Task: inverse folding
């Protein structure tokens, strides 16, 4: 008997970060008191009609571009008809025939090679209510009803759990960096469904597909897939048919469990939404949106590498989008990238983590940060002084120069003052040492001078003076 | 003219029998007050209770509004004019039932766009009119609240679905009503009751707040005693509404502006389909009289064919009912509407009982047909095929309008029939709309205009124009109205 191979496809729903809902002007915010961000449209009230939030179309086009999709330039919405209490109109407005994007891909890094995970299509739709089941009752929160979603559907091209996780992580990174969504799985702003089937190695026909709905975390995706592969393997090896069904991953027992059979699923009776006219998207419109595309992590990695930043620092930067933005701003202002990256991922990040705050909660400005990096680069200050200045910058909105003045951190650059310190250190013994190894000797002397001056001696001037004095 | 009549000791005024312009002048001169008009309406409603044209009266609010208006300047022709509203148009704080048990206790929280419009003109809403349940029917016999009687002959149907609106105007309770027209629901009852009813161009009037039957066909329109007044109400209710993406941006125009212009030399097409053998001979005879009159006045008339127009009824059954099956899905009793007394064990039972008990038979029948034509492969077989033929019919009309100014024909195939007739015939009501449905398929504006009274039963004709050419309809309609000079008051001439 030959091996069983899994075939996996992933559907991701992500909530878009727009100000308003997609088909009404209610606010799109998370975590508010239940049923406060609603109007008669979200409530499926008789006589109401959908409007269309243009921001959602813009974000949709942006997402399509980021996922290398083609864009449907003539596009309409469809109604998906099914009865469920969380579905206020008992139909959902979605896109079936003309998804905004199709035929795209996301590239994942398998270590030894890159693999394209092909995107079948991505479409815009409205979210349903949130159902809360309590004591045999179901409560409905309509705040979520009408929140814009984009559903991204891969082709069945994922071979294993590892690729699945890499794909979802990569997709999250793109959606986050693209400003598309918060991609918070725990808040439900990113939701994952996995389709999985097994087939014999020598067989080209895919096996019976099982869908695992709404997996709650990336680690659970891996677990669910591994569990499901094992479960289906056992069935097939025991000559039991795999049933086409929808399952869920039960976090408490770490297993997938059956929810409902596919056979009993609804016939969704899709048809074009008559309340929203067809949209025609012009090429020039797409071009405008192209201009707003951010640099994605994969491109950033290449760029940072070229600038000489090391891998650990790059990873630290990419995993913190906010700090990364500061570095990009610094670089665009012509600041030294390596020094900037080191400060940001070093003392700055440590301070933020220690205090559990965001850079926005501090007094640090991009101009101040630039000034600090510039002074370090030109050796106007030592790295020790740099640390002291930075620690002051968190609390104070003073300029770097003012901080230096107030804290008596100005470097001693006066030659006479420095010579008074240097001259007593120079004797014949030192000069002999210098003739043997000048670099080591200068380093030693600078250390001594720094001790005396508490780090405030201008290293450039000191270096200059030492060379002169030692060559005398 | 004597405007005071004494009826059973109660002084009954008859200001509402005056023309709109006369009423307006009396209001301006302070000869009458808004409250006089409102009280007259309500006593007429009482005297005509048997007609059953209203489901809900707005008496308290109407009186309040009339008193408020007393001190206001009479700033427009519709000021303080009473109006009746079809009960599928959402009115804030005023029960809106759609003629259904499903919404028997439904009190909306917002006003439809058209209600805001008529409020801006300070019209006074008198009440909500009876209608076929969810506008599904053409004789007002599917209403949960019972039939509406024809004011010309109380054994006859009013037509529908805007039956209550039509009879409230024909019986002279109110000078105006708003109706809605998906396949003929304004024009057919207007013809049956001897009033003027216009279905505007699709997109001319916002549908926001009209409880949807078939979204791609529905349109709200004015119903009135005569042509000029009809145009005045249309002036008030049109406009682009950002809450309805299918409403159109158009320059403001006075729809009465072409009334009185010469019609000599205009070109009219009559589709052969509109004078086919299924049409009652009396109706055809009346219609032909009008055609001959027009020819005598120098109008050019040609008989033409429109491809596939004979398929309009089955197309309507597919498209309208498919959309309806989806539009009516929201009525599940969870957030509003009818809720069963039965004990419910799960969500499926909730839908089954709430919808099974809340909807009437005709509505359920149509939802089933609509669901069927969208199910599985049927959507290709029926729905998409219907859409493509609809497009051909629509193009057929457009092509005719390259050559002709108007398309005309009778409004109905029959005269108003007996109450109870055809109730068990699931297909009959669609054939009542044989001549009105093609207009909705093409999204065109069309009016039903009274052109004769036959055995005390009115007959109407349709005047159809190209999209957004309502003003042209009023021009021809007014000309015919003036030429025919019919007495369209079912009570006879009060001054005789």
Result:
């Amino acid at each position: 008997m030959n091996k069983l191979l899994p075939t996996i496809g992933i559907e991701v729903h992500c909530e878009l970060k727009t100000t308003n809902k997609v088909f009404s002007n209610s606010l799109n915010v998370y975590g508010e008191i239940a049923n406060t961000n609603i109007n008669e449209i979200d409530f499926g009230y008789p006589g109401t009609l959908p409007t269309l939030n243009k921001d959602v179309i813009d974000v949709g086009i942006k997402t399509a571009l980021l996922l290398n999709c083609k864009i449907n330039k003539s596009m309409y919405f469809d109604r998906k008809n099914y009865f469920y209490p969380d579905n206020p109109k008992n139909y959902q407005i979605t896109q079936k025939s003309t998804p905004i994007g199709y035929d795209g891909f996301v590239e994942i890094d398998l270590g030894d090679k890159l693999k394209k995970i092909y995107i079948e299509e991505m479409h815009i739709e409205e979210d349903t209510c949130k159902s809360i089941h309590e004591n045999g009752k179901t409560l409905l929160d309509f705040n979520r009803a009408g929140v814009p979603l984009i559903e991204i559907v891969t082709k069945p091209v994922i071979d294993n759990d590892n690729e699945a996780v890499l794909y979802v992580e990569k997709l999250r990174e793109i959606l986050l960096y693209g400003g598309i969504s918060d991609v918070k799985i725990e808040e439900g702003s990113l939701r994952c469904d996995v389709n999985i089937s097994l087939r014999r190695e020598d067989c080209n026909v895919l096996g019976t597909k099982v869908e695992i709905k709404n997996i709650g975390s990336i680690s659970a995706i891996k677990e669910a897939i591994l569990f499901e592969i094992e479960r289906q393997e056992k069935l097939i090896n025991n000559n039991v048919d795999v049933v086409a069904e929808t399952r869920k991953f039960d976090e408490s027992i770490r297993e997938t469990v059956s929810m409902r059979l596919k056979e009993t699923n609804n016939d969704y009776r899709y048809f074009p939404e008559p309340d929203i006219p067809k949209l025609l998207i012009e090429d020039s419109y797409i071009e405008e949106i192209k201009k707003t595309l951010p640099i994605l992590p994969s491109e950033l990695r290449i760029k940072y590498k070229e600038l000489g930043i090391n891998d650990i620092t790059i990873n630290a930067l990419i995993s913190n989008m906010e700090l990364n933005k500061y570095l990009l701003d610094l670089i665009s202002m012509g600041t030294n990238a390596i020094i900037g990256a080191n400060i940001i991922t070093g003392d700055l990040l440590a301070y933020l983590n220690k205090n559990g705050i965001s850079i926005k909660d501090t007094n640090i400005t991009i101009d101040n940060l630039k000034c600090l990096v510039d002074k370090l680069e030109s050796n106007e200050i030592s790295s020790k002084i740099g640390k002291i200045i930075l620690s002051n910058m968190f609390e104070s909105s003073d300029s770097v120069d003012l901080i230096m003045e107030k804290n008596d951190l100005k470097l001693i650059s006066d030659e006479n003052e420095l010579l008074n310190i240097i001259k007593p250190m120079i004797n014949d013994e030192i000069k002999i040492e210098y003739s043997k190894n000048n670099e080591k000797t200068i380093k030693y002397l600078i250390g001594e001078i720094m001790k005396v001056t508490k780090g405030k001696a201008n290293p450039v001037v000191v270096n200059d003076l030492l060379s002169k004095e030692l060559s005398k | 003219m004597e405007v005071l009549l004494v009826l059973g000791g109660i002084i009954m005024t008859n200001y509402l029998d005056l023309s709109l312009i006369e009423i307006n002048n009396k209001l301006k001169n302070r000869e009458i007050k808004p409250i006089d008009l409102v009280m007259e309406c309500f006593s007429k409603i009482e005297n005509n209770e048997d007609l059953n044209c209203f489901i809900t009266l707005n008496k308290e609010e109407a009186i309040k509004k009339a008193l408020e208006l007393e001190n206001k300047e009479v700033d427009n022709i519709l000021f303080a004019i009473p109006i009746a509203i079809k009960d599928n148009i959402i009115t804030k704080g005023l029960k809106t039932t759609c003629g259904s048990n499903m919404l028997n206790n439904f009190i909306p929280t917002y006003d439809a766009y058209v209600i805001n419009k008529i409020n801006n003109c300070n019209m006074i809403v008198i009440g909500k009119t009876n209608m076929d349940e969810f506008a599904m029917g053409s004789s007002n016999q599917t209403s949960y609240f019972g039939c509406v009687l024809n004011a010309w002959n109380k054994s006859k149907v009013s037509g529908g679905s805007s039956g209550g609106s039509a009879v409230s105007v024909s019986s002279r309770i109110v000078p105006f009503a708003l109706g809605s027209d998906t396949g003929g629901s304004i024009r057919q009852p207007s013809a049956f009751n001897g009033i003027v009813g216009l279905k505007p161009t699709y997109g001319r009037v916002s549908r926001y707040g009209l409880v949807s039957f078939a979204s791609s066909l529905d349109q709200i329109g004015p119903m009135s005693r005569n042509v000029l007044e009809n145009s005045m109400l249309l002036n008030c209710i049109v406009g682009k509404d950002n809450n309805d993406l299918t409403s159109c941006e158009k320059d403001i125009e006075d729809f009465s502006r072409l009334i009185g212009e010469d019609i000599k030399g205009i070109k009219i097409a009559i589709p052969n389909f509109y004078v086919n053998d299924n049409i009652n001979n009396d109706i055809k005879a009346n219609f032909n009289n009008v055609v001959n009159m027009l020819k005598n006045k120098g109008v050019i008339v040609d008989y033409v064919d429109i491809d596939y127009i004979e398929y309009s009824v089955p197309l309507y059954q597919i498209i309208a009912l498919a959309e309806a099956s989806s539009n009516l899905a929201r009525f599940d009793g969870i957030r509003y509407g009818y809720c069963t007394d039965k004990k419910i064990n799960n969500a499926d039972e909730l839908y089954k009982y709430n919808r099974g008990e809340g909807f009437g038979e005709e509505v359920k029948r149509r939802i089933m047909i609509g669901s069927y034509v969208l199910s599985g492969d049927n959507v290709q077989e029926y729905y998409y095929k219907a859409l493509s033929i609809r497009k051909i019919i629509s193009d057929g009309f457009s092509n005719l309008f390259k050559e002709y100014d108007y398309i005309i024909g009778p409004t109905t195939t029959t005269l108003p029939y007996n109450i109870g007739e055809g109730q068990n015939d699931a297909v009959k009501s669609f054939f009542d709309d044989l001549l009105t449905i093609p207009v909705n398929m093409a999204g065109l504006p069309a009016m039903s205009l009274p052109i004769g009274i036959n055995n005390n039963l009115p007959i109407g004709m349709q005047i159809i124009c190209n999209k957004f050419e309502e003003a042209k309809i009023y021009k021809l309609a007014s000309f015919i109205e003036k030429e025919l000079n019919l007495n369209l008051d079912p009570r006879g001439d009060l001054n005789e």
Q: What stands out?
A: Chain A has three domains: 4-285, 295-406, 415-471. Chain A has a mean pLDDT of 91.
